[in-house]
């Protein structure tokens, strides 16, 4: 690295390129507002605390889910597995069509993907605006997990199968 300062545009592009090379689990974040289902794909999701059990979800304010999630009392973070790639690809379509693919149910009045690796239903506990995003903190209300699923992982603008990653020999 040189001592020359990067312009804002250069810094943003370098940040984007850096983040493209961080493997991330793919999530379908969903909610209901005025009887209509909303959802987006996200990778900016993280566990927050075990007491109380909680997580955070970062959503761009320009995303179709943002305003409904601002109003919602509950949301679901569906951890997508390899078998949910069709759902992920379908979530890239216009909002009205997103729930046409996948086995969607309703639990605690939010859309839940029955075949997800895990589903974490949360009560919205806090909302914090920062930059272009809102950070939603959700306190866990219900959770379920499938033991046989491998997470759908996004890396360098593509989905990868981490179960096929080469194994390193254990140190002696």
UniProtKB/TrEMBL annotation:
Protein name listed in UniProt: Flavin reductase family protein
UniProt key word Oxidoreductase: yes
A GO molecular-function annotation: oxidoreductase activity
The entry's keywords: Oxidoreductase
InterPro entries noted in UniProt: Flavin_Rdtase-like_dom, NADH-dep_flavin_reductase, Split_barrel_FMN-bd
Top EC category: oxidoreductase
Domain Flavin reductase like: 19-161
Natural source organism: Aurantiacibacter gilvus
EC number(s) reported in the record: 1.-.-.-
Gene3D superfamilies: Electron Transport, Fmn-binding Protein, Chain A
Keyword field contains rRNA-binding: no
Domain of life, source organism: Bacteria
SUPFAM superfamilies hit by this protein: FMN-binding split barrel
